[in-house]
Amino acid sequence: MSHPTPTPRQILETLLPYLRVAAGYACQLQPLIRALPNKDGDNFFAEALTDADLSIQTLVEVALLGTFPNIRFYGEEHEQSGNTKYFRSIELGEKGDYLVTLDPIDGTKFYLDGHNNYQIILTVLNSDEFEAVLAISPALNTYYYALRGEGTFTGSLEDNLDACVSVKLESTEPIILLGWGMSEFKPLLQKNYDVIDVGNDYSSDAQIPNHNGILSGCVSGTVIRAGKFIDGAALAFLAQEAGCIVTTHDGSVPPPLNTCENYSRPGLIVAASESVHQHLLAAAKTLKKA
């Protein structure tokens, strides 16, 4: 039996009801969750693999296999999942042969510490670029989504895609968010901005913004060490579709996905305005010369 290839919008529309269930599950378990044994990683955000990660991924896998059985799928926990072997592939395909990816709990450390800024991130990838991203904030009952070339939209979890409103970039706080391993940028930016260095400024007691803060005006720019397809690059795509400037650390356009390795683009700069981008780019160039 043949199954026609769904459009990126159809994939989002089909999975949204399941992701609402996943969001409710994540909220219910947050106070109760206990970390499973650690998984490999080079920072404390990658330390804890939780029941929620595995359960949410399983829910999405079941929905995909039951609805779009020929789809490609890469989940963050693919090595632990019993469903990985049933998907046609976990790799990028040719043009039009989409790969769906999932980060079931982006910000596991946020989640375990009881903060509300963790997310569930689902993407639809073409061979060269993101076609769609949907990022849910379960604890806030909101989500963002973007389709390639159509802008970024937001709504409450009860809203269907058509009911969401366009994200308009307005005034932003003069705050720069540095991802893990980017602390060397801080002294170069402190003259013009308040700088939050995730690796050193994170606290289990005081919540910091996440990378989607640029969409709500909480931050005016972010710098990340690597743009992983399932999270960092996905959130950068949301920002870009909303009108932000997204480049690599040398100011180049991010490379096509099919030229990247290990499901990751190189380090990215995301800025709400040209002036912010120039400040971040100047800092990156200074560090490169050092």
UniProtKB/TrEMBL annotation:
GO terms for molecular function: inositol monophosphate 1-phosphatase activity; metal ion binding. The keyword Metal-binding applies. Mg(2+) binds at E76, D103, I105, D106, D231. Its cofactor is Mg(2+). GO terms for biological process: inositol metabolic process; signal transduction. Keywords: Magnesium, Metal-binding. It comes from the Bacteria. Pfam families: Inositol_P. This is Inositol monophosphatase family protein. It comes from Lyngbya aestuarii BL J. The lineage of its organism: Bacteria, Bacillati, Cyanobacteriota, Cyanophyceae, Oscillatoriophycideae.
